Amino acid sequence: MKMFLSDNNSGVHPRILESISNSNIGHEPSYGEDKYTEKANELFKEVFQADVAVYFVTNGTAANIVGLSGLLKPFEAVICTDTAHINVDECGALERFGGNKILYVPNRDGKLVIDDIKGFLNSIGDEHQVQPRVISISQITELGTIYTIEEIKELADFAHTNNMFLHVDGARISNAVVALNSSFKEMITDTGVDLLSFGGTKNGMMIGEAIVSFNKELSKNFKYIRKQGMQLLSKMRFISAQFIPYLEEDIWKENAINSNNMSKYLKEELEILPGVEIMNKSLGNILFVKIPKGWNRPLQEEFPVYLINEKENIIRLVTSFDTTVEDIESFINYIKKLSSVH
Amino acid sequence: MKMFLSDNNSGVHPRILESISNSNIGHEPSYGEDKYTEKANELFKEVFQADVAVYFVTNGTAANIVGLSGLLKPFEAVICTDTAHINVDECGALERFGGNKILYVPNRDGKLVIDDIKGFLNSIGDEHQVQPRVISISQITELGTIYTIEEIKELADFAHTNNMFLHVDGARISNAVVALNSSFKEMITDTGVDLLSFGGTKNGMMIGEAIVSFNKELSKNFKYIRKQGMQLLSKMRFISAQFIPYLEEDIWKENAINSNNMSKYLKEELEILPGVEIMNKSLGNILFVKIPKGWNRPLQEEFPVYLINEKENIIRLVTSFDTTVEDIESFINYIKKLSSVH
Amino acid sequence: MKMFLSDNNSGVHPRILESISNSNIGHEPSYGEDKYTEKANELFKEVFQADVAVYFVTNGTAANIVGLSGLLKPFEAVICTDTAHINVDECGALERFGGNKILYVPNRDGKLVIDDIKGFLNSIGDEHQVQPRVISISQITELGTIYTIEEIKELADFAHTNNMFLHVDGARISNAVVALNSSFKEMITDTGVDLLSFGGTKNGMMIGEAIVSFNKELSKNFKYIRKQGMQLLSKMRFISAQFIPYLEEDIWKENAINSNNMSKYLKEELEILPGVEIMNKSLGNILFVKIPKGWNRPLQEEFPVYLINEKENIIRLVTSFDTTVEDIESFINYIKKLSSVH
Amino acid sequence: MKMFLSDNNSGVHPRILESISNSNIGHEPSYGEDKYTEKANELFKEVFQADVAVYFVTNGTAANIVGLSGLLKPFEAVICTDTAHINVDECGALERFGGNKILYVPNRDGKLVIDDIKGFLNSIGDEHQVQPRVISISQITELGTIYTIEEIKELADFAHTNNMFLHVDGARISNAVVALNSSFKEMITDTGVDLLSFGGTKNGMMIGEAIVSFNKELSKNFKYIRKQGMQLLSKMRFISAQFIPYLEEDIWKENAINSNNMSKYLKEELEILPGVEIMNKSLGNILFVKIPKGWNRPLQEEFPVYLINEKENIIRLVTSFDTTVEDIESFINYIKKLSSVH
Fold first, then answer.
1. DSSP A89-150
2. Could you tell me the pTM of the whole model?
3. Per-residue model confidence as pLDDT tens digits over C66-81
4. Which residues in B lie closer than 8 A to residue A234 (C-beta atoms)?
């Protein structure tokens, strides 16, 4: 049975697992000097249509922290929303590893808006205050919303005008690209993003995260920071080998289309039920749904869900690359049963 | 063709790869709440015959740093040899992540001896100096030598007598256990080791490192430190699934026996050659070999090796779980050819 | 001419300077082993009527950061207001030196209220999130308001009930004690404060800040942290010698009475002027005053003030231990002149 | 009675104390915007005959750590001797605040020699290892020896040739300049030193340390690092005011001449005594002296000294700016008494 707790609960897409197996031949240079890593690097350049520098790491937190700390001096700060993963879900990794302050502001529908950033510009040059240097957004956001291409471009322009960089936490970047019927190039390269945490794990990879830098001068020291950040894998080929079919055979797209579609289907089925309210404008694979309090207990027993807001009784439902119509239907059927009883 | 550059160049043992595949079924709770992790944890308790707390991480550096920084306050220090992996091969990870000083002393045949530690005891209580708190040794050492059970016990006793802990960097712990015809219990649990970095990657796993704590009170906060150290994997089951056959089916032993035996064979074949000198008392899978300078260029072309000491022209040869008699023989044949020409 | 920019702009009270001179006799043990430090430590025990441990440092930032980082493990966090000095005026010192996250919430009239802290309790035990461990308040607050004795006691009780500590940033603690007609014992010791940054510099000392710990077990390692935090002075006697008359001769009280009284006088004179609005409920020595925009330029030329809110045109006026009735009157006269012209 | 424990035990030169008093007039801008700081900055430019950037801090550890961490990225390292103050006497401040590794090598008579540095050049470009970036020497050294002008120049040239910087820990820089009959310009500016920790406290100041940067581009962010490092004093004028007579009236020279001369006199008196052996080639104010073990107890009772090497029974004797001929004579007389008895 598939759950809707998180796309992290899913396994690995069969063609990616196959690629891992196929790379298990003889000896290969370690630490990323192997031919699979070389190939994967080339594929990143192709899909982004840019001469990017790519650093594979083992999870999304590492992609964010190694990358951000690489952009920041210890007295410089990153600006993000209060709900940003780097702010609430990484156990203070940036503060500890980078020594950097995170300047968080209230989110607007999950997003960061320029008006909320402007106040920090007053700190520039004042030795008593951390210096704002990176704007970080999550695409798709932690609240399931999606920045438009224009919004990203405006943030990048604002950042560059003010001597800052734009970082995108793309743990679910494929879902965003698919939802907006866009491309990695159009959404990231062309908007002027400086640094991307490219997530694959939540979208059908086993361990697949990459730091993608659009400014090689800026990231020239990332190799040291990755190692110092305990993120340099010896048998790197087994990460790289996953990215090859993921990018070359468009598994990223195939998987994201499915999870987005399943989320849409789930939404359509839920929003017609009495007592149920969809709380976010999701186009991706994350729904926030208000349900009657009486459903909580039976639901947790049968279909464990993440009760994200106890007061309002809002649950989070995440679909995955392997979610099927049948998974949705058994969930909806169960919900309907609850609906008739409670 | 197999190389002797490092045991990191090898791939994954087929039964371990199979276990990964077999765990790729449906959804599982993420971040280590899955059934594979539970099983793997139990197996660690069995092989060590102790109620250990186990934390899976993605590489040896992470096992060392998350564990050590968990034992240390920022003003406390770890004592090790100048050649220790934590001292020279981790790009200053402990200094950065933990803020801790590493007090290194000259190695004696790769080992740390108590007489070289005693001087640091004078610092205890002196606010001007870091406080020595952990003794860290590598088993097998970076120079391929192996601590005896008695030596480990003495170091542990010395540590405990002086209010310190003993940490073992066990990147190649299986090779040591096999070489001494010992057991994990006898070598680690019974000697009083407090914390072990248990390495599997160099011995046939894909990504398989574990922090093994013998003092649950001491490691009660390790879960936060692992997350803050960017080492908590979402799809943890794919790490845990590797440890199951590794421990349950004694793949650790099978693999270490092979690499040790191959190293022994390599040594026997090399030491009878004129101009060749075995430099270390290896019982494990690492040889340091002095060769004539004239061999360097042709050897690097055919059989890339790690020239570890340019002045003395010493190379390092590491055998792996998958090294075969044929691999040794083709290497030796090539060496013999060189020997006849240069 | 005295300014109202900050109490930092004032000099040193003559009796404190005299005490420095008087301690300049011959040789004394360094690093705080001298007789002046011993005496000052005793005086702290007297005025707080508690067996406190005292650590002298060189500024308020140091008192906050050495103390807080001493209470916190790197994955633990401090909760404070958005306006807290540790959050906005210390250039990210806690994040860098301690690696700790600061969880800031909107202030309520400069204060932290328990309802705004409760949300963080949900993080306890969750490895993905920093663990809340210290509640930090400023007395008097950065907005010039003052916590009542009852409010401090409630915060301390709430902290202790939830396995947390209460820290008070007392850069202007003397002004608070005087304003509430209280005592150090009643305001700090009896309410259950765990750690106090005791400020003297803003109240007539030259360099006079002390970390006062009410829990010796908790602060037993502070001596190492102070040294590692670059705050151990060799000629410590010249700091300690300042604290002796400050505490023994009640210079702290004499000075705070004057600055509070001068602030009150300033307020009375200002609030009757047309176009002027007092923005805070100050009982101490800090006023926030809304003035007509037209006054900005001439005021900055004659009496430089800190324009703290450009949009609302609010200035901050701080009185000092050495502010005189004449200083207030010449300022008010000038304001009246402006008032008649603009 | 004056002791020979450390030059830190001395007090403040009367003209420096007078300058502090004289600067205690009215209000001054805080945090170094005052006129005394401006004047002191100008004086530094004069004595070094260079357009230096100067940052006042409160102790020698702070001067070293704020400066060094300003030159280093966290994965970069500093090379020094095993006896360097930054390595053994700062409680791991650089490791914690900067996250930097210290690469220490055995000292040669207290000094760092180029041959011992060369090995670290092999690490350059290797992501597994910290990158050597700063060479740090102490002048005079912790063993009382003094680098010649030529030695400093060679170290600076070697550093620059290898893309590194040269830092001088000048806690006792005035004693060195006087001993070699040199000048700050000749010893520091002209040799190519990049960064100097300029020490005044041990030479008659109260709290007087300065970071002197010879490369403004390199130190442009030091103001943030000083604040983040808790070293920005609000009432800065009282530090700056000390430097004015120190530099303008050559108190630095007057004081260093006295302590050096007293050390020389002490040496001459000691070396003729039976059973006494001078252990270092001191030209400055630090002597290491081997004495008979029987003297320890009576000496500690009458003239506490620092027993620096218990095994060899070597004591350290430091003379100060205020040491008098009478101080030496009473010490020598006492020693002679001991000599006759034990």
1. SSTTHIIIII---EEEE--BTTB--HHHHGGGGGGTT-TTSPEEEEEEEESS-TTS----HH
2. 0.97
3. 999 999 999 999 999 9
4. 6, 8, 59-60, 201-202
